[in-house]
Amino acid sequence: MTQRISKYQRFKMMNPVIQFFKFIYLSIKIMIVVAGGHGGTRKVN
Amino acid sequence: MSKIVILGAGISGHVAATNLRRKLSKQHEVVVVSPNSNYQWVPSNIWVGIGRMKSEKILFPLAPLYKKKGIGFKQAKAISFHPEGDTTEPKPYVLSEYVAGNNKGQQEKITYDYLINATGPKLNFEATEGLIPGENKTYSVCTYTHADHAWHGLIDVIQQMKKGKKAKILIGTGHAKSTCQGAAFEYILNVENELRRHKVRDMAEVTWISNEYQLGDFGMDGMLMSYGSMTMKSHEMIEMIFEDRDIKWILGAGVNKIEDGVAHYENLEGEHKSETYDFAMLIPSFSGHGFKAYDKNDNDITEKLFRGFMVVDADYTPKPYEEWSVRDWPETYQNPSYNNIFAPGIAFAPPHSISKPRKSKNGTDITPAPPRTGMPSGITAKLVADNIIDTIKGGKESLHHKGSMGNMGAACIASAGYGLTKGSGVSITTYPIVPDYEKYPKTQGRQLGKTFGEIGLAGHWLKLALHHAFIYKAKMKPFWWLIPE
After folding, report:
1. What start-end ranges are recorded for coiled-coil regions in this protein (chain B) (predicted)?
2. B329 touching A (Cβ < 8 Å)
């Protein structure tokens, strides 16, 4: 096994307090991307 | 009065039916035709496949809901399409056969004014010799019954490992042109996490096998993404996760034959190799259902409606990868020959793959097919429903609602382990799904700020929140329509 994720990184990834705020942040960011609309790609003459 | 028939009650069909019913008055008829009696929230099959969620938690029966909401429901399978009717039936219809109840085995010409083909894919296990869920130690998580079987297979292997037997676990794609790598990716991380939870991780060799050219391709040609304060390629991120979890990988592999505990594959070098295993979960290729279509004189017009999947407003002109354009992808999912037929979700024929096509040295195509599951299925179904609603209400054809996968974002919240405090998730959001190299030439066709990845416990919570939110929405509980697709 190669440890590619440091202990500090892992702490941040699994800390419930940090992750609670990350959850709020991610929910909003994802909502903006996916619910932010969609449309066509072809130009209408 | 208009009659809208929807074939299929998966994510796409159900989204179309519920939106049509909500926005159209009761004088218009909405009818769902599906061989399945239950709605299932497919993304949570992963947790059924590791025994952390009962399949009853991800499904509910359709008939009572549809009865309550005024949506017609026929538990039947489509057999053939007759978009001009025939010599005895002037209206267009779909010939269907009931699969349950008192009418079982009976056929009916189900007429329509508008048809939404949301039949999704056929899970084409037959395309790979010996790939049969529950046989040859291979399993699938594509349906809740498959996922249940997979869990029984996995726990057997875990019990053997607890008794001291070393085991090899193989997870990935079971065909050279499979799609849905994301589901297999979620499953391998969840299985690896469960092995640690059962304290048998050191007894198992876990291997990823895939038709992808690089890790993190996901059938979308990979992506350049923001990760924290860095910008990295998706293959770098997935390599980091796999190495950290001691998961080995085999890439560019077109699995072509399964024997008891052995997967045979051809790689891009043209070598024929095999990999042994004690437990495997391999995603099959997806195909169309092989429907036939006939005109009013009973002449075969299948090519007008189908090229495997349903023909829609895409540009199907064959051209090399270098000439592919985001504009090749459909916007309205309307059939060009019959403007009252639509095919959202997985049912539409994509113009080509998204990933760069590759052949082995023997000429075998080993390229992931383009994914259209989950979020794009819901979004395209809703826009098709909205166009039909506008057309009915306005009295003339309206195709105002558009949603090309080249101008649509998607979030892949991949569970990486179940548990309220010990769980994890890999959240990857991409915009657009199909890269637009003209608009974003320097960032591999995607917008960096909107294409990002995150790893951590929050991802698991997010996936769990989505599970509950989308089942709430599918059950049409109060204000369900406020939840976006």
Report:
1. none
2. yes
| Distance (Å, whole) CA B211 – CA B276 | 17
Terminal-residue alpha carbon distance, chain B:
28
The CATH code belonging to domain B128-285+407-482 is: 3.50.50.100
At B190-216, the pLDDT tens digits run 999 999 999 999 999 999 999 999 999
Mind listing the pLDDT tens digit for each residue in A16-45?
A: 999 999 999 999 988 888 777 788 998 754
For B3-123+287-404, CATH gives 3.50.50.100
Structure tokens at B102: 């008192």
- Write out residues 1-45 of A within 8 Å (CB-CB) of B: 1-5, 12-16, 19-20, 22-23, 26-27, 29-36, 38-42
Residue B237: the pLDDT is: 94
- Residue spans of the domains in chain B: they are 3-123+287-404, 128-285+407-482
Does B455 reach chain A within 8 Å, measured CB to CB? yes
Please state, for a pLDDT cut of 70, what percent of chain B lies above it: 100
CB contact under 8 A, B244 and A41: no
Tell me which residue of B383, B137, B148, B374 sits closest to B277, measured CA to CA: B137
**Chain B residues near residue A1 by CB distance under 8 angstroms:** 243-246
The verdict on a CB contact (< 8 Å) between B459 and A26 is: yes
CB atoms < 10 A from the CB of B451, how many? 25
